[in-house]
Every structure is written in C-alpha cells, then in structure tokens.
C-alpha cells in the first residue's frame, strides 16, 4: 500500500523551473517556490546572468545566450531520469523561456508565460521589448536609465529600472513592507550587478 501511494505521489510530482523578469532575480519566486515544494513538487528558480546573486558582469553579456547561460546550463544538466520540466517565466523572462524551448524542446513539457513577453517566429527576440519602449512616453520611465557599453562595431545597451519607477509601476499594489524589501533587493540587483542587456543582445543573437 505504501509503495502504491509513493508511486502515485511521484506520478503527481512536477518539476518546475522559474525564470525572473527584468532587473530582478530568483528571489522574486521565494514564496511561490516554497508553496510548490510544500505541495510535493521539485522547483528550481534560476538567477540569469548579472541578476540576483549571479556574479557575471554585465560587460560579459554579449548575446542572449550569454544572458540565459545559467538557465541553459541547468536544462543541459538534466538527464532522462529527471523527466520534463514546466518552465514558468515572468515579464522579460518570456524571452529566455522561448530560447530555452528552442534549445531544449525535448526536455520541456510546457511553458507558462506569466504576464511575460512572448516572442514570435518572424521578428528578432528583442522585437516585443523594443515595441514596449516605443509605446511608453519617456517621462513615464521616471528614473529608469539606459547605459551603453560594448564596442563601436557592436554597441550594446542595458536597462536599469530605477527605484521610483519600480515603486510606482511595479510594486504599487504591494503592501508597504513587501515593497520596501523588494526595492532594497532590487537596488543590489540593478546597481551592483547592472542587470541587464536585452535590446541589442537579443538582436545580436
């Protein structure tokens, strides 16, 4: 009886891979990760390059593959015994999820785009992000900045979401304590790790 119950539990267990959004890190999934694990699932929240506690320097990110390297390496490490994963992506993480699907289609059971960017099969990966930038008036970005780097023949740019922008546009519906904690973590993500470089990195890919 115990073996049957255990087999049923294993059958219902899912393996989730969680991908964070722009200027954030794996920490954004902490509460969700805990709830899924309590329910018996296996969960991995990935810090993409130059995000969260990943110590990659933004100057080292030249392509979308560079930015998604931690995610791609994790998926590559999964064996046949690990089963297929369910990828859950938030915001800009949708672009990373799409790349993962192209690279490891046989290892992914499904992708959940949670208010996330979903690239099409015609335009470059950065198309949806560039369209967003054009649709929002400059003054609405508040203290958000774009920083150029790279080389003259291969210019790159990363977007740095400012604390005022995040407080007003991203955490406006969150409890004050949650908002303060999130902005404190974001300060490290954005200022110290300088996350991240999407527009030209995606196009460069």
Automatic annotation (TrEMBL):
The keyword Nucleotide-binding does not apply. Keywords: Hydrolase. Residues 16-143 form the AB hydrolase-1 domain. Its EC number is 3.1.1.-. Pfam families: Abhydrolase_6. InterPro entries: AB_hydrolase_1, AB_hydrolase_fold, MES/HNL. It comes from the Eukaryota. Gene3D superfamilies: alpha/beta hydrolase (3.40.50.1820). Methylesterase. Belongs to the AB hydrolase superfamily. Methylesterase family. This is Methylesterase. It comes from Arabidopsis thaliana (Mouse-ear cress). The gene is MES6.
């Amino acid at each position: 009886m115990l073996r049957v119950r255990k087999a049923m539990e294993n059958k219902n267990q899912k393996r989730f891979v969680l991908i964070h959004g722009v200027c954030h890190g794996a920490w954004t999934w902490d509460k969700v990760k805990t709830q899924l694990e309590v329910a018996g699932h296996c969960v991995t929240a990935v810090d993409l390059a130059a995000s969260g506690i990943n110590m990659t320097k933004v100057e080292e990110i030249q392509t979308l593959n560079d930015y998604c390297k931690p995610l791609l390496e994790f998926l590559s490490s999964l064996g046949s015994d690990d089963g297929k994963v369910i990828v859950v992506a938030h915001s800009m993480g949708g672009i990373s999820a799409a790349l993962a699907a192209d690279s490891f289609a046989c290892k992914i059971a499904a992708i959940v785009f949670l208010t996330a960017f979903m690239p099409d099969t015609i335009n470059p990966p950065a198309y949806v992000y560039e369209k967003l930038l054009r649709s929002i008036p400059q003054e609405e970005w508040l203290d958000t900045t774009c920083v150029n780097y790279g080389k003259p023949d291969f210019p790159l740019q990363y977007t740095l979401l400012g604390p005022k922008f995040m407080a007003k546009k991203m955490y406006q519906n969150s409890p004050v304590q949650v908002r303060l904690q999130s902005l404190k973590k974001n300060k490290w993500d954005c200022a110290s790790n300088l996350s991240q470089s999407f527009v030209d990195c995606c196009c460069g890919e």
